[in-house]
Amino acid sequence: MLRRYLAREIENWTKNGLLEPGQGAALLADHDRRHSGFSLSGVLGVLAAVLFGAAVIALVAANWELIARPLRVAMIVAMIVVGLAIAVVARRRDFGWIAEAALVFTLLSYGAGIALVGQMYHLSGDEAAFMLAWTIGALVVALSFSSAFAAIAAGLLGLGYFFAEAEIWGRAVEASNAAAYLHVPLVAIAIAAAALRTESKVAGHLAALLVVGWAMWLFSERFGGDPGYLLAVLGAIAFAAGSLVPAVYQRLGGPHGVASVYGTVMLLAGLGVIQGDLSGDNLVLEIAMAVLILGASVAVLAIAGRDNQSIRRFAYVAFAAETIYVVSETLGSLIGSSGFLFLGGLTLAIIAYLVMRVERRFNAKREQT
Amino acid sequence: MRFLRTLRAPLNPVIAALVSACVLIGTLAVMIESRASILRHGEEIVLKTAPVDPRDLMRGDYVRLRYEDISTVDIALITGQWPEKDRMAPLWLTLVAGEDGLADVIEVSTERPSTRAEGEVVLKSKPERLRAASKSGARTGSYNLTFGIERYYVPEGEGLEIEKARNQERTTVAVRVSEDGEAQIARLMIDGETLYAEPLY
């Protein structure tokens, strides 16, 4: 779809003299080189693998006693072997997507295998160990085969492992769980390595999410702090590094890039969490907090909004949400629900108008430069 | 950049498959063998199950189990060094078979017993939050301990009978315990008659 659109546009540009003859073909060739992997059949192949894998898990979960245990284990092992074998053959013949699909199937079979062992020996209450074993398996497959899908799977499973740990140990202030405090960042580093090796952006984001989650968890559990503060501070640092410190952002490929996006989301989300906890305590404090959030979203917009669409959008949303929150907190009880809806609508309309103006200015500036 | 090039160096898919197969299948094998070895070498105790609330809650294909003597432990009875700070730590239960063949708890401690007499079995609980505050003042309340033996997977439809017997307190479970205090269900019995015996594999 995209390629056809691109080809048509390039043809138009060449016709209008915007592109030199021959340049269009070079651009298309570059596009094809980097996006050769994407195809509908490939996506369907991976989906099929997920369904096959889910069928395997369902089969194990059904606990059919007709088949002897050793045979069940052997079936799972056979499925792992078959999945890996298909991946090898597909890699050798350059069917990248089939290899990815086969590896996804392998990992699902492996998860079913771990569940089967739990069922065979009536194990209970060890979800974290289960998820960790599965994550490590996915990491080994991702790193050895350099498989992007296995890396993404490892990222998702790593988050699952984190939530299993955090659920067991959550709310336990100063309850030392040194092992898990250490395991989670190690898993995150391994996922990051897999993301770099496979050049998977999604896996990279998952690794970053895991690190952020871990930091908040550690902060709230070990130091009894409100994770909102940590999130806001980390966000401010990340944003500043990504947008204001040339030494850092030049290494990340330019100002207002991914570090700034993370910074924006973390900063505004963190401030939001803090405000949510303050709720009802002190009106003056809350208003000050609201001013801070509105100010932060405008500042972010002013610094990085022109160059980064994601930051711009998130800042708009944060600004609008905060305004509505302030209106509801201050006037909500006075004016009743219909009045509030009317006022909310009016506020949003004003913000929409402002956003339009800001967008136009950004566009004008961009054309100047 | 050199680091990235090294990191992205392709690996022969055959080697990749061999490495993956060893790790995936090896992990499963280790998991299975660790359980089988408890069944093979562990010391056996018999535990009486207790009713589970809410009753008749059949979750998926397993029966939830609780045990009469060991699942709830009175904090006042716990011996051993109490931690200075809140801490997640296991409790160690010393059990001995009574005259009826069922295990009786003779000691619950925060420390692993260094010696044990003939016929005694030491069972380790899953980590429990030990509050420093519980040490001073009156140690009241109780812990709900788990041991990783709180589930029994059964063929579909057969769970209800076990649940009924469990709630009538007629179900007993034979558990094998490893040197390290880890427990593994070996047999499930109703009125002393074995309903399911676990094969090694």
* N-end to C-end Cα span of chain B: 50 Å
- Please state roughly what percent of the residues of chain A sit in beta strands, choosing from under 5%, 5-15%, 15-25%, 25-35%, 35-45% or over 45%: under 5%
Helix segment tally of chain B: 3
Mean pLDDT of chain A: 83
Q: How helical, in percent, are the residues of chain A?
A: over 70%
Low-confidence stretches of chain B: 54-59
Descriptive keywords:
heterodimer, A: 369 residues, mainly alpha, 14 helices, 83% helix, B: 201 residues, alpha+beta, five-stranded antiparallel beta sheet, four-stranded mixed beta sheet, 22% helix
Question: What this model shows, in words?
Answer:
The complex is a heterodimer of chains A (369) and B (201). Chain A has 369 residues and is mainly α. Chain A is built from 14 helices and no strands. In chain A, helix 3 packs parallel to helix 5 (96-120) and helix 8 (178-198) runs antiparallel to helix 9 (201-222). Chain A starts with a helix and ends with a helix. The model of chain A is unreliable at 168-174 (pLDDT under 50). Chain B is globular, with a radius of gyration of 21 Å. Chain B has helices at residues 2-7, 13-41, 159-167; strands spanning 43-50, 62-64, 66-67, 72-74, 78-79, 87-89, 92-97, 103-109, 120-124, 128-130, 142-144, 151-153, 171-177, 183-190, 193-197. Helices cover 22% and strands 34% of the residues of chain B. In chain B, strand 7 and strand 8 (103-109) form a beta hairpin. Chain B folds into two domains: 2-35; 43-197, no CATH class. Classes of the chains: A mainly alpha (369), B alpha+beta (201). At the A-B interface, helix 4, helix 5, helix 6 and helix 8 of A face helix 2 and strand 12 of B.
